[in-house]
């Protein structure tokens, strides 16, 4: 009798483990394939701020940068948090142009708090979220953690540009 009970239990465990493994593989799917990115550029900042050069996936230095940014986006860890802020300053944004003409943007994430004053007026305070980004593709937005991409977006692209 025990043999009859143990066999279905082993089969059930194998099925559950196979399902978990395939779900894990699906969650590790690449968000971006480097070969699907035509170019990227850092835009935004205060009015008058100089944008980065256009990093094109067809030239050596550009391909290196595009590959690095795609790998950081793919390695980012999705987290909970705000993805919509309204007007909150002038952040630097990575703008990726895909081969199909669509755009993907990556911007620093913020934590915003709105407050209604006793006189009925309101205010909003936004503070940068450490090591967090928001990835926007079409109408979908994902908040994620990526220390490397945050650092590069804040000052690394300028250092890279100056060393080229």
Question: Mind explaining what this structure looks like?
Answer:
- Helices cover 36% and strands 34% of the residues.
- The protein is α+β, with helices and mostly antiparallel strands and 164 residues long.
- Strands 2-1-4-5-6-7-3 form a 7-stranded antiparallel sheet.
- The chain has helices spanning 2-27, 60-75, 147-163; strands spanning 37-44, 55-56, 77-78, 92-98, 103-116, 122-137, 140-145.
- It has 3 helices and 7 strands.
Summarize the structure.
36% of the residues lie in helices and 34% in strands. It has 164 residues and is of the alpha+beta class. It has a seven-stranded antiparallel β-sheet with strand order 2-1-4-5-6-7-3.
What key attributes describe this structure?
34% strand, 3 helices, 7-stranded antiparallel beta sheet, alpha+beta, 164 residues
Element layout with pairings:
Elements: H1 2-27, E1 37-44, E2 55-56, H2 60-75, E3 77-78, E4 92-98, E5 103-116, E6 122-137, E7 140-145, H3 147-163
Antiparallel strand pairs: 1-2, 1-4, 3-7, 4-5, 5-6, 6-7
> What Rg is obtained from the alpha carbons, in whole angstroms?
22 Å
* Total number of helices: 3
Through-space gap between termini: 74 Å
Mean pLDDT: 80
Give me the count of strands.
7
Given helix and strand content, the structural type is: alpha+beta
Shape: globular
Helix-strand topology string: HEEHEEEEEH
Task: Give the proportion of residues in helices.
Answer: 25-40%
Strand percent estimate: 25-35%
Which stretches are low in confidence, meaning pLDDT under 50 for 5 or more residues running? 15-29
Largest sheet: 7 strands, antiparallel
What order do the strands of the largest sheet run in, or round the barrel if closed? 2-1-4-5-6-7-3
């Amino acid at each position: 009798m025990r043999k009859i009970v143990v066999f279905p239990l082993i089969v059930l465990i194998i099925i559950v483990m196979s399902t978990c493994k395939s779900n894990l593989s699906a969650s590790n799917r690449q968000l971006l394939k480097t070969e699907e990115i035509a170019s990227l550029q850092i835009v935004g900042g205060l009015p008058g701020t100089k944008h980065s050069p256009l990093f094109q996936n067809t030239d050596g230095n550009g391909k290196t940068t595009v590959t690095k940014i795609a790998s950081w986006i793919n390695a980012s860890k999705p987290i909970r948090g705000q993805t919509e802020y309204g007007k909150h300053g002038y952040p630097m944004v990575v703008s990726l142009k895909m081969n199909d003409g669509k755009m993907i943007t990556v911007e620093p994430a913020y934590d915003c708090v709105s407050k209604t004053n006793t006189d009925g007026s309101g205010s909003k305070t936004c503070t940068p979220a450490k090591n967090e980004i928001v990835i926007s593709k079409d109408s979908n937005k994902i908040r994620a953690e990526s220390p490397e991409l945050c650092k590069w977006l804040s000052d690394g692209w300028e250092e890279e540009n100056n060393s080229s």
